[in-house]
């Protein structure tokens, strides 16, 4: 009996190993907050696996800008099939690597801009803004912020898409005057973090008066915590827009599964998760609309956005200005 039980165990184990070997694995590189327990990753993984017959594997690879650096370093040897978490400030640079493949996704986008990119698929969008406590006297421009004693936390543009977005925001608003704006802001900056999560955590811990984030961030506190004490400063010069995207790597060994995931990304099963987990506007409005509480969010009077090619051309000069002003 022991022998038979042992043999049966071997058969069961072998069958399990064969089943595991036959289950395709789709590897998606993304940013840290996306795969956190409170982020969209867990719910999206469950929903996609229910229909794909696969194992969806999210790999946290730092903040958004760090994703491109990792994929560029790994090249065709990368284990990733999909990269989720780039934005329009990075898509031109990503395309120039030759590592991404064309995709065909059909969607009825509700973006505030036209979308016609055949390599990168949008999944959410928002406006960069400084989050603060509601009882704080808010500045109405970068100049007012620079003239104040307010302390801010920002993210590094070399590793973080919000950090790079801030560079583009200042450049779009002030052009050649950007170096002077950065010089004025230098004594307001408490620290520069590698990514968004670290920066927002410092703000919540009371280490700064304001943190670079999004106009949608207060929705988290309102909806998830029942806390309406957070708001965003509305700047007269306008707010820079971010459109987050995903793309398929040309060297993927699961190209059809990657295509299936990208099409799934614009369905209600994915898009309905975004507002209350990633705390951004979905690229396709869910069937039930936006959650209650989103109607209370600050709406910029002016939207700022460079094209991908413009952003790529401006990145290095804007980064040099930032580094010179902050002495980093």
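^ structure tokens above, recovered residues below v
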């Amino acid at each position: 009996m022991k022998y038979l039980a042992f043999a049966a165990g071997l058969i069961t184990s072998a069958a399990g190993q064969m089943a595991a070997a036959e289950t395709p694995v789709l590897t998606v590189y993304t940013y840290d907050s996306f795969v956190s327990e409170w982020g969209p990753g867990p719910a999206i993984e469950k929903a996609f696996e229910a229909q794909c017959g696969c194992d969806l594997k999210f790999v946290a690879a730092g903040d958004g800008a760090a994703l491109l650096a990792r994929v560029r370093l790994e090249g065709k040897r990368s284990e990733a099939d999909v990269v989720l978490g780039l934005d329009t400030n990075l898509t031109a640079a990503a395309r120039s690597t030759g590592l991404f493949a064309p995709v065909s996704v059909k969607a009825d986008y509700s973006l505030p801009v036209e979308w016609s990119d055949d390599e990168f698929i949008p999944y959410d969008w928002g406006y960069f803004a400084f989050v603060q406590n509601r009882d704080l006297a808010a500045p109405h421009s970068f100049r007012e912020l620079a003239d104040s004693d307010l302390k801010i936390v920002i993210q590094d543009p070399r590793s973080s898409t919000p950090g790079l977005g801030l560079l583009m925001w200042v450049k779009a608003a002030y052009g050649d005057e950007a170096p002077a704006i950065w010089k004025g802001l230098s004594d307001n900056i408490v620290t520069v973090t590698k990514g968004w999560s670290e920066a927002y955590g410092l703000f919540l811990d009371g280490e700064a008066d304001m943190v670079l984030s999004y106009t949608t961030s207060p929705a988290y506190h309102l909806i998830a915590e029942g806390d309406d004490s957070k708001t965003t400063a509305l700047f007269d010069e306008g707010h820079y827009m971010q459109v987050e995207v995903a793309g398929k790597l040309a060297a993927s060994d699961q190209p059809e599964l990657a295509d299936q995931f990208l099409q799934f990304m614009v369905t209600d099963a994915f898009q309905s998760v975004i507002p209350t987990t990633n705390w951004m506007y979905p690229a396709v409005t869910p069937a039930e609309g936006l959650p209650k509480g989103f109607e209370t969010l600050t709406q910029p009077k002016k939207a700022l956005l460079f094209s991908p090619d413009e952003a790529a051309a401006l990145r290095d000069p804007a980064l040099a200005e930032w580094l010179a002003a902050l002495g980093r």
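The CA atoms of residues 178 and 225 lie 37 Å apart.
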